[in-house]
Amino acid sequence: MAHSEIKALLFDVFGTVVDWRRSITTEMRRFGEEQGIDQDWEQFALDWRALYQPAMEGIRSGERGYVKLDQLHRENLQQLLLAYGLEALTKAQLDHINRAWHRLQPWADTLPGMNRLKKDYVLASVSNGNVALLVNMAKHSAIPWDMILGSETAQGYKPQDRVYLHSAQMLGLEPAQCMMVAAHNDDLRAARALGFKTAYINRPNEYGEGQVNDLKADQTWDIVGEYMTDIADALGC
Amino acid sequence: MAHSEIKALLFDVFGTVVDWRRSITTEMRRFGEEQGIDQDWEQFALDWRALYQPAMEGIRSGERGYVKLDQLHRENLQQLLLAYGLEALTKAQLDHINRAWHRLQPWADTLPGMNRLKKDYVLASVSNGNVALLVNMAKHSAIPWDMILGSETAQGYKPQDRVYLHSAQMLGLEPAQCMMVAAHNDDLRAARALGFKTAYINRPNEYGEGQVNDLKADQTWDIVGEYMTDIADALGC
């Protein structure tokens, strides 16, 4: 396909750009050792993440007004304290744990791919993360965004239409001038239905050995790759 | 003063980061030569800019709902067509001229200063420019933003309080953790009244030889410098 129309690449972040599971697990292992708390911290990361979709659903449904993902993460963390022996921690310690999402590390192929793509395209997040979370993550991990868009700027949560549409509109672009890059078929399905171009990156290890969804592309997305560098190859960067 | 509390530097853009007068003049001189239209293009740049404050005032006053600066620039350009012999241009040509604001060039000291500051601080625009204008300008001129904030994300125009406050809030910061950097005393006055730190850069040639305002700092701002690199020096970057 011809890609000359595309001006911006819009990225899902959690799982696509960064490896949240390993990042949270590594931080918590270190924290657990310091505090003398011995737990299965990989399971903790998976359990924390499992509360993510239900928490957003309350806002998507209109049951609750918009709140930032930082707040949802904090509420979800609260639910895990007892099960993981964290109930005696101070507020400052819990806030520090909550901000582990601000310190997520990219997959090994992410920065090599994005730094090539940045020369020819506007690179913007279209993530359910809030602005501060993504700004701090970018500073921490050198992610070369041109702009941070998504949930907070659109006041909604993917896959709500307005998150994609408002992001394109803020860049002064039509959906067809934007390519959504994600490791999740449902994210691309929502974007394609609105006229966006689509690129799938396979991250079969995002959830570890037990991963059941998104083990491969389930449609003929415009680009399908194993690594971020494959997207750069496909776009001739 | 101690600056250890400061996490983010928030920048005015037109006049502070970029030299809009020389950029617009240079583009229009080239365009005029190509089109055989002989005009005083520096005066054109000044006249176009002179329509900026009155156009925003209609929105600040509530007389008109929020529209992006791109649209205000386009309406203002329309008012100048006859006086500058541009009335026969096509819509595509006028749109190209309007997007000259997306191609403004930094002052010579801007990038050396900002690239030093970026290592230690979050760098965000807090400009009356819209997001697409500032994203495109950053791509064109290599301005190293971590985030683009201001008018469009806050749905207002400086010096309205909410533009400053919403920008800090999006970064997850208190006003006292942010320093507003501007070449305009009134911008810093508005920010200081809300609790922001302030840095003044002197740009006595922003409007050319006839400049009457902002020829020097009119208060004891937290930092006062002649160049962006002076701000980096003062902050120990």
Topology summary:
The structure is a homodimer of 237-residue chains.
Chain A: E1 8-11, H1 20-35, H2 41-50, H3 52-60, H4 69-80, H5 91-98, H6 110-117, E2 122-127, H7 131-141, E3 147-150, H8 151-154, H9 161-170, E4 178-182, H10 185-193, E5 197-201, E6 223-225, H11 228-234
Parallel strand pairs in A: 1-2, 1-4, 2-3, 4-5, 5-6
Structure description:
The structure is a homodimer of 237-residue chains. The first copy, chain A, is globular. In chain A, helix 10 links the parallel strand 4 (178-182) and strand 5 (197-201). In chain A, helix 1 (20-35) crosses helix 2 and helix 6 runs parallel beside helix 11 (228-234). The model of chain A has no long low-confidence stretch (mean pLDDT 97). Chain A has a six-stranded parallel beta sheet with strand order 3-2-1-4-5-6, sandwiched between helices. Chain A has two domains: 8-19 and 104-234, 3-Layer(aba) Sandwich (Rossmann fold); 20-103, Putative phosphatase, domain 2 (DNA polymerase, domain 1, Orthogonal Bundle). Helices cover 44% and strands 11% of the residues of chain A. With 237 residues, the first copy, chain A, is an alpha/beta fold. Chains A and B meet through helix 7 of A and helix 7 of B.
